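Ticket #4471: structure output looks truncated?

Reporter: J.K.
Steps to reproduce: submitted the chain below (207 residues) through the standard prediction queue, then opened the result file.
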Amino acid sequence: MSMLKVFTYNIRTEAAGDGINAFVNRKEYVKETFPKYEADLIGFQETQPHMRQWIIENFPDYQVCGIGRGSDLLGESNVIAIRKEKYDLITLDTFWLSDMPRKPGSRFSTDQSGCPRICTCATLYDKESGKAFRFYNTHLDHVGAFAQAQGISLILNRIAADYDAWQLPVILTGDFNVTPESVVYQSVINFKGCGAPLADVTADVGP
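Returned output as attached by the reporter:
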C-alpha cells in the first residue's frame, strides 16, 4: 500500500450563539487550509447536512461519504472524504454506538448524552498498489465516561470482527472527547485485534 496522508478534523457543529464563530465565518479557513496538505483521506466529525453539502461542493477532488446520526439519517455525521484519483470505495457502512447498533438514532441506556453517536466505516482500494484497507471514523460521547467506554469497546469489537473476515489493514480516526490518560485511549493503543497493535501516529503532535 502506498503512503497515506490521513486527517481527522472536528469541523464543529453550528450553534445559535456562535456569533463570529459561526460556520459561515469559518468555512473559508477550511477551504483555504486543507488543499495545501493534499490529504488522501479526511475523517470529519460534527458535520451537519449543510456542512456536508458544502464539503462536497468545495472539495471536488474527494468523494464524500456518510450519513447522519439521527433516526431519519440526518443530523450530524462523521463523513469520510476520499481522494478520488487514488482510491475506490468498495463498501460503506454506519453503525450506532448503542445496544442496537443497526437501529438509526439509538443510544446506550447508561450515562450517554442525548446525542446519538455513530461510526462510519469504509473499505477502500488503493489504485496504485492494488491493495485494500479499512477506514473507521467516529465521535464518542461528550458526557458519559461509561458511554465512551461502551462506544470504543463496540468499535474495537467491530474492527476485530471485520479483521477476522477481511484481513485488511486498519485506520481509526475520530474525536474521542478524552485525554491520553483515559481508559478509552489506553484501550485503543493496547488493542491487538487487527493483526498488530494500533499505532498512535499523532502521539508527537502535542495538545
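Triage note (M.O.): checked the attachment and the full C-alpha cell line is present. The radius of gyration is 17 Å.
Status: closed, working as intended.
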